[in-house]
Amino acid sequence: MEPLASVSFAGGAGQRPAGWQMQLRVDYAVNKVMQTHRGQSEDAVAQAIQDELRTVGVVPNGRQIAQYAAVISSLPLLPPNNRT
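and the corresponding structure tokens:
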């Protein structure tokens, strides 16, 4: 009986840094808010980011949220999408 070959997961989860999945969730939530809350007040943007992060299961970091909110609120509004 021959020994079984070892299984190799090249590029698998063993090579990813800790917290990579949480960062993907943060990026998703921030990008979603960036599309809908550009140019609004920092408080409104921060609340929207907190809400989105909680829906994807991430406990928000206040300092990080404030930084994202400041940048998103300073962005210009997107032009309306007139495709029908």
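(Above: one complete record from the training split.) The CA atoms of residues 22 and 58 lie 7 Å apart.
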